[in-house]
């Protein structure tokens, strides 16, 4: 587990000069907590324990008994995302700074190729944007926005050569990104074989389109139309459908943006039935609700617009935090995708035009600490699991990321569980004018952030350097998702029943006709064998028609005319064993 | 109702011919709500009196029933006696099918009119009606299946609902590339039928995935009937049920699921009802009495006999579970989905299971098995038995209380039910023309001793059937059945959606008509076809409102390349912050 073996950047020498000792902290991993010092060098953790033998004169950080946790991994961001000729206001530099300020030391951004465009080109484009500006390590998901054989080839290349193991498909955005059930089936089948993770944006796009048209017809054009036209049932429905398809194709499924109780419940139920499915609530769904869509302030209401929408049910955040604590939901992202008010105002007269996205990359970890850990729902180990470790496992980056252990990357956070800060757009690190968590008081915050073995947050000062972030390639077949899948694949072999040929009578039928008289030619099937010795049959199907009560005139033509029966009904069979 | 006149004329004629006065004495009258000892007097096909010590004419025929149950005749809500498959018709037509129904205690059937894609619904309806009028021995009504969806269908539906007495239509979520409808079409169908006050019935299976699974199973070399359940796993049924209910909720329209075959589908319905959805579920004789393990039979003909869609679940605990749900009211009605194809017809698919005609028998066994599996085991009481075999159907499809109840003024469709009778099911003794019976060898407790339809005794144990071909009447049904629509109507009234009244946003608007320098390499594909360009920007200087907090200020670096016409944080003419 040496940092050198990973795909490097040209500026690795800068990293190697950093030697750092964290003293007196309590290391919290997803499985255990213990007191130990940590020594790191070259961006990698070299020693963990008491009384470490370290070179003299190195920088030492005193943790004073505070928790030392693996840096957060935000598994879902949209930095610098192009949208109708504009881009989101947080680019990779701004966004990753906000991430670091919140204790997140790795982000996973979504590459969104435009339908019809090359996935690889889009991937390279995102790589170049991110390499230039990101201040922390990153990986990429690639969204599959259309599907054909060449896309399949590209997905294959991305999986095998480019270090992408997760691909998002859309069940919403009709006539644009949306995939049909058949396409989903094919994609799931393919990725299931190749060891990729299927992520779904789960909403029923067809019904949304109908509902949107209905809302606009009713004269509802404000942001409340967004949530009215995307009720949470449609999210739950799509989640249910996605799980069904994944189960049929034996493919692990990852549901991005779990926004509602009903969708989360579906995931919960499916996990209880044994489905391999992961749910990702986001900062916004864990921290706030959809009542704000009815705000009289258009700009405020619009700032909450994201898809699936925040649920108007105010008990949703609590519920999702509970499921996160119980392990029914596994990872948290932020889906950070920030637009300025002016950009949101593209949809001021039509809610369907409002660019979708909320902030949350900076608030993610504090918010979960505040809502779940300080309330006693979740312990600190589970906190590490849902903010970092599970994401690393799904991306197949564990234990390089997501764990404080010798050989892991030196991405650490010293977490101050007593710190209290009030979220406001005035002080946040995003460029957005609005913060959907405005005014919330959150307990728990990073006091020191170490990324790639370097101090980036200390004493409230952020020293993030754009461009130092490395692309971390993800490999296919992560054990966390695929061990079970592989075992099932071996078991789930479908077998035919070995039985003799049916050699009884076959009715005439007309494959193309609609109830007309059948043509005689269609009678004999190509594989039909000669009639066997029927007297050997041990099986009798039929009763005697005479026993069917008094015959009437209409009783006689019970068989449609034009049917040629070669042997009497009740047939014969060469099978002797009746099961 | 002009078109119905000929039917009525004929009825009067027949009434004279066959008028029978009947007194049923000493029975226990069981309705869905109460049981009482009472005599029932029938005249002119109607129940005239119910009670003790009735005053009746002298020349009536008296049936002494000695404490047997007197129940409303069963209504089989789902039969397919004329459904064509690749040019074949089922061997049980309206005559044989209705005979079998009567022999099992069912005095009314509701058959599915199944036009092929492209056919006229009205023509198909008339074809079915004509055939049934000629052949059917018991009263009947018709559901019409929608094989396609386009504006012309709407006119036909209006005629069917308003003039022809049809209030239920089936749509398919399965059978890709023929009957299957997309979610958008379903939404439109639901919306339209709701306006007409009709009940939407769904064949709920995910056809897209079935098509994929069929291809996969065939490619593995599995061509026998076991390929049918393998390619129609019950998850796909549950998925479609869930989706159908979701759409029903969105449109606020009652949803009726035909052929509930699996535990998961039934559970999905149960959960939806817990959340208040107006949804009805119909298990069928086959799913209530047998299971899908037979698909793996070594005997091809036997395995093929069980082929129906959705398939019987291979889980042998399914029938029990479905009976539990029927007993507690989570499932409401029992149909038979009787669609009888002979073995030689089934053999059309001998080399490819996808071609096997789908359908099982069950019209005759329906009531017996519900009694045997649910009432005789103590899951269900006799009243609930009446509800699920007759009354609920009459309520959902607006036939109540003419059908489905023993009360003064109701049709004299009455069954004398003997709970202690036992019978072994065998194809040798069945009314159906099939050579096989999927319930072969099963012993069934409970059965009809006497069946009265239209006031005439048509079946007596030991004497067999005495039916008159063509005596069945078409029973028209009015739209907006209360049982399904009362809640819907109220919800429509109270659940109107309203926009928030807020002043116009008059802050800065990003210019999406931006000049090429802001546009990414391929601007053409990015814009959704439905998107519209925003109107021009207003005069921002007239605004008098400042948003919550001066968030637009200081320190925060702005990205270049963004055209902001007014400061972010904007303005608005609203003074009240929500």
Characterization of the model:
- The complex is a heterodimer of chains A (579) and B (578).
- With 579 residues, chain A is an alpha/beta fold.
- Chain A is built from 16 helices and 18 strands.
- Chain A has helices at 12-16, 92-101, 119-133, 149-162, 181-194, 205-217, 224-229, 232-249, 261-272, 283-287, 298-303, 316-326, 341-344, 364-373, 380-394, 479-491; strands at 19-28, 33-41, 44-49, 59-62, 67-70, 72-77, 82-83, 86-87, 104-111, 137-143, 166-170, 197-201, 253-258, 277-281, 412-422, 441-451, 454-458, 461-462.
- In chain A, strands 1, 2, 3, 4, 5, 15, 16, 17 and 18 form a nine-stranded mixed β-sheet that branches.
- In chain A, strand 9 (104-111), helix 3 (119-133) and strand 10 form a beta-alpha-beta unit.
- In chain A, helix 5 (181-194) crosses helix 8.
- The longest helix of chain A has 18 residues, at 232-249.
- Chain A is globular, with a radius of gyration of 30 Å.
- Mean pLDDT of chain A is 86; it is low at 1-16 and 512-579.
- By secondary structure, chain B is α/β, with parallel strands linked by helices.
- Helix content of chain B is 31%, strand content 18%.
- In chain B, strands 1, 2, 3, 4, 5, 13, 14, 15 and 16 form a nine-stranded mixed β-sheet that branches. In chain B, strands 6-7-8-9-10-11-12 form a seven-stranded parallel β-sheet.
- Chain B is globular and about 95 Å long.
- Classes of the chains: A alpha/beta (579), B alpha/beta (578).
- Chains A and B meet through strand 7, strand 8, helix 5, helix 6 and helix 7 of A and helix 2, helix 5, helix 6, helix 8 and helix 11 of B.
């Amino acid at each position: 587990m040496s940092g050198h073996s990973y795909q490097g950047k040209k500026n690795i020498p800068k990293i190697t000069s950093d030697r750092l000792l964290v003293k007196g902290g309590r290391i919290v991993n997803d499985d255990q907590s213990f007191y130990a010092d940590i020594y790191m060098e070259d961006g990698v953790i070299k020693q963990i324990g008491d009384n470490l033998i370290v070179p003299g004169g190195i920088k030492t950080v005193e943790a004073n008994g505070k928790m030392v946790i693996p840096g957060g991994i935000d598994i879902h961001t949209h930095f610098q995302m192009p949208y109708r000729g504009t881009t989101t206001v947080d680019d990779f530099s701004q966004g990753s700074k906000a991430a670091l300020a919140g204790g997140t030391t790795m982000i996973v951004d979504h590459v969104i190729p435009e339908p019809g465009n090359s996935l690889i080109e889009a991937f390279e484009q995102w790589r170049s944007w991110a390499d230039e500006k990101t201040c922390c390590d990153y990986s990429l998901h690639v969204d599959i926005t259309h599907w054909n054989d060449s896309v399949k080839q590209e997905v294959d290349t991305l999986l095998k050569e480019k270090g992408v193991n997760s691909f998002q498909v859309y069940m919403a955005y009709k006539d644009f990104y949306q995939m049909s059930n058949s396409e989903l089936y094919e994609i799931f089948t393919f990725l299931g074989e190749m060891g990729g993770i299927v992520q779904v944006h789960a909403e029923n796009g067809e019904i949304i389109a109908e509902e949107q048209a209905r809302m606009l017809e009713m004269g509802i054009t404000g942001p409340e139309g967004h949530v009215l036209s995307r009720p949470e049932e449609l999210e739950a429905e799509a989640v249910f459908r996605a799980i069904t398809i994944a189960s049929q194709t034996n493919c692990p499924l990852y549901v991005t943006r779990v926004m509602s109780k009903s969708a989360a419940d579906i995931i919960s139920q499916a996990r209880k039935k044994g489905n391999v499915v992961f749910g990702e609530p986001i900062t916004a769904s864990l921290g706030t609700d959809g009542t704000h869509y009815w705000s009289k302030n258009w700009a405020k209401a619009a700032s909450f617009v994201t898809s699936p929408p925040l649920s108007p049910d105010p008990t949703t955040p609590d519920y999702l935090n509970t499921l996160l604590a119980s392990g029914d939901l596994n990872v948290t992202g932020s889906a950070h995708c920030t637009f300025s008010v002016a950009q949101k105002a593209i949809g001021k007269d039509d809610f369907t035009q409002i660019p979708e996205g909320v902030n949350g990359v900076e608030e993610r970890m504090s918010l979960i600490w505040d809502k779940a850990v300080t309330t006693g729902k979740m312990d600190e180990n589970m906190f590490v699991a849902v903010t970092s470790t599970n994401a690393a496992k799904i991306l197949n980056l564990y234990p390089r990321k997501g764990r404080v252990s010798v050989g892991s990357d030196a991405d650490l956070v010293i977490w101050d569980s007593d710190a209290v800060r009030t979220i406001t757009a005035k002080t946040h690190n995003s460029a957005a004018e609005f913060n959907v968590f405005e005014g919330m008081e959150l307990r728990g915050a990073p006091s020191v952030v170490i990324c790639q073995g370097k101090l980036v947050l200390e004493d409230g000062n952020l020293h993030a350097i754009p461009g130092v972030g490395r692309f971390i390639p993800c490999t296919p077949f992560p054990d966390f998702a695929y061990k079970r899948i592989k075992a099932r694949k071996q078991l789930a072999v479908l077998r035919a029943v070995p039985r003799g040929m049916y050699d009884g009578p076959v009715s005439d039928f007309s494959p193309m006709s609609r109830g007309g008289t059948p043509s005689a030619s269609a009678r004999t099937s190509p594989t039909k064998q000669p009639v066997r010795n029927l007297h050997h049959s041990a099986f009798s199907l039929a009763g005697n028609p005479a026993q069917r009560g008094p015959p009437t005139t209409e009783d006689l033509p019970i068989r449609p005319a034009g049917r040629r029966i070669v042997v009497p009904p009740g047939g014969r069979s060469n099978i002797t064993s009746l099961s | 109702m002009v078109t119905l006149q000929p039917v009525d004329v004929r009825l009067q004629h027949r009434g004279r011919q066959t008028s029978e006065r009947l007194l049923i004495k000493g029975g226990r009258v069981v309705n869905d709500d109460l049981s009482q000892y009472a005599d029932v007097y029938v005249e002119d096909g109607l129940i005239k009196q119910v009670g003790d010590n009735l005053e009746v004419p002298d020349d009536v025929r008296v049936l002494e029933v000695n404490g047997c149950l007197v129940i409303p005749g069963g209504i089989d809500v789902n039969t397919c006696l004329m459904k064509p498959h690749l040019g074949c018709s089922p061997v049980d037509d309206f005559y044989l099918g209705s005979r079998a129904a009567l022999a099992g205690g069912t005095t009314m059937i509701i058959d599915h009119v199944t036009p092929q894609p492209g056919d006229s619904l009205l023509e198909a309806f008339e074809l079915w009606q004509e055939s049934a009028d000629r052949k059917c021995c018991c009263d009947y009504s018709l559901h019409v299946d929608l094989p396609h969806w386009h504006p012309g269908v709407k006119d036909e539906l209006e005629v069917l609902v308003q003039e022809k007495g049809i209030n239920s239509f089936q749509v398919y979520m399965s059978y890709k590339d023929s009957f299957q409808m997309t979610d958008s079409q379903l939404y439109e169908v639901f919306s339209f039928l709701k306006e007409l006050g009709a009940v939407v019935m769904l064949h709920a299976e995910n056809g897209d995935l079935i098509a994929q699974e069929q291809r996969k199973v065939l490619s593995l070399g599995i061509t026998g009937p076991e390929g049918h359940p393998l390619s129609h796993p019950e998850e796909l049924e549950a998925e479609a049920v869930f989706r159908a209910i979701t759409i029903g909720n969105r449109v606020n329209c009652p949803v009726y699921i035909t052929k509930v075959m699996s535990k998961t589908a039934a559970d999905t319905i149960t959960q939806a009802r817990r959340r208040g959805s107006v949804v009805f579920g119909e298990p069928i004789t086959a799913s209530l009495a047998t299971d899908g393990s037979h698909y793996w039979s070594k005997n091809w003909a036997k395995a093929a006999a069980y082929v129906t869609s959705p398939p019987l679940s291979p889980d042998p605990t399914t029938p029990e579970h479905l009976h539990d749900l029927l007993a507690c009211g989570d499932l409401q009605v029992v149909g038979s989905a009787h669609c009888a194809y002979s073995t030689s017809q089934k053999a059309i698919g001998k080399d490819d299971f996808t071609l096997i005609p789908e359908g099982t028998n069950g019209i005759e066994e329906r009531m017996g098995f519900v009694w045997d599996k649910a009432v005789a085991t103590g899951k269900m009481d006799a009243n609930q038995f009446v509800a699920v075999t007759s009354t609920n159907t009459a309520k959902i499809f607006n036939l109540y209380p003419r059908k489905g109840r023993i009360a003064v003024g109701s049709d004299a469709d009455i069954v004398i039910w003997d709970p202690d009778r036992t019978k072994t099911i065998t194809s040798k003794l069945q009314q159906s023309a099939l050579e096989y019976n999927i319930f072969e060898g099963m012993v069934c407790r409970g059965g009809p001793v006497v069946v009265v339809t239209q006031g005439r005794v048509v079946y007596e144990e030991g004497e067999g059937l005495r039916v008159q071909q063509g005596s069945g009447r078409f029973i028209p049904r009015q739209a907006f059945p209360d049982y399904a629509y009362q809640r819907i109507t109220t919800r429509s009234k109270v659940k109107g959606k309203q926009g928030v009244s807020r002043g116009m946003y008059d802050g800065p608007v990003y210019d999406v008509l931006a000049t090429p320098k802001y546009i990414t390499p391929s601007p053409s594909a990015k814009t959704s076809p439905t998107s519209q360009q925003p109107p021009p920007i207003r005069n921002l200087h007239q605004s008098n409102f400042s948003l919550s907090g001066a968030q637009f200020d200081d320190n925060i670096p702005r990205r270049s390349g963004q055209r902001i016409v007014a400061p972010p944080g904007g303005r608005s003419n609203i003074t009240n912050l929500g």
